[in-house]
Design goal:
Blueprint: E1 6-17, E2 20-31, E3 35-39, H1 46-53, E4 61-66, E5 69-70, H2 76-81, E6 84-87, H3 99-112, H4 120-123, H5 127-139, H6 155-167, E7 173-177, H7 185-200, E8 204-208, H8 212-218, E9 221-226, E10 229-234, H9 236-240, H10 243-249
Parallel strand pairs: 3-8, 3-9, 6-7, 7-8
Antiparallel strand pairs: 1-2, 1-4, 4-5, 9-10
The chain binds adenosine-5'-diphosphate and magnesium ion.
Adenosine-5'-diphosphate binds at residues 17, 20, 22, 40, 42-48.
């Protein structure tokens, strides 16, 4: 409703790669505590939108505003410290470090800033962050794997590890790019349950998702992108029945 507190406002964003208009005229408002899904066919601009929100890409015009702060133009670590965490489409973990250390690092980065990673070894004896990291790993069901190298995890478990790396930061806003891609149906359902748990704790989420089962299980609101533009927005049921959405998915 109109009393909702808007946490993230994407305001008239454009982004091109050469002659390709990856994002045109994107306006998006994400309300506090809600799960906002972004769906659309491959190449629609979903990942580009997420990358603009986390500072990996600078919009050509427009702005991204988070809790009153303009994010666009800030470096990713500053955006992260403001309380925005992300889970990328391709897991970005530290393959040679233990599963536990993979989660200690983002906890430290959130607490002390990006450059604290240099001091990680010296501070490693700190129990507090390790406990926090272990709790995040329990939350995602990886407690049995804490001591093994990140790179040795299965594809689905790497995705769960990345989720723990985001959750350990207690983010105000969590952005997830296809968090269930490559997961079995069982792992997908576990991830849905996990994200529902964090929703119950009030975390605001933007989730890019291909799997409609995941969208219908989690989303309060859905924005549909096609060829860099918003073609529909509404509740999951509203967008499901929208002919323009069906056409976009059928390649019309
Ligand atoms: P989606 O995540 O919806 O599949 P993307 O945001 O990854 O789509 O891509 C949108 C469009 O922008 C695609 O046509 C893609 O090829 C193009 N694109 C994405 N990133 C780049 C880049 N860094 N350089 C050039 N083109 C890109
Ligand atoms: Mg993508």
């Amino acid at each position: 409703g109109r009393m909702d507190n808007i946490v993230l406002h994407v305001d008239d964003v454009f982004k091109s790669f050469g002659g390709l208009h990856a994002l045109s005229d994107i306006d998006l408002q994400v309300a506090e505590g809600k799960t906002h899904a972004i769906i659309g066919p491959n190449g629609a601009g979903k990942s580009t939108l997420l990358n603009v929100c986390v500072g990996r890409l600078k919009p050509d015009s427009g702005a991204v505003v988070f809790n009153g702060s303009i994010l666009s133009g800030r470096p990713p670590h500053e955006i992260n410290q403001l309380g925005v965490a992300r889970v990328f489409q391709t897991p970005e973990i530290f393959p040679d470090l233990s599963v536990l250390d993979n989660v200690v690092i983002p906890a430290l980065a959130k607490r002390d800033g990006a450059f604290a990673i240099d001091a990680w070894k010296a501070m490693y004896s700190e129990g507090e962050l390790k406990d926090k990291a272990a709790t995040a790993l329990e939350d995602v069901g990886l407690q049995e794997h804490m001591g093994q190298e990140g790179g040795s995890l299965s594809r689905g478990d790497k995705r769960r590890l990345e989720l723990a790396m985001g959750l350990v930061q207690d983010p105000l806003l969590l952005l997830l790019d296809e968090p269930t891609a490559g997961m079995s149906r069982l792992d997908t359902n576990r991830t849905i349950e996990l994200l529902q748990k964090f929703k119950a704790r009030g975390m605001t989420k933007v989730i890019i998702e291909h799997d409609m089962h995941v969208v219908f299980s989690l989303a309060d609101k859905v924005t549909v992108l096609a060829q860099g533009r918003i073609i529909a927005e509404g509740t999951p049921d509203e967008v499901r029945g929208n002919p323009a959405v069906q056409e976009a998915y059928l390649g019309g």
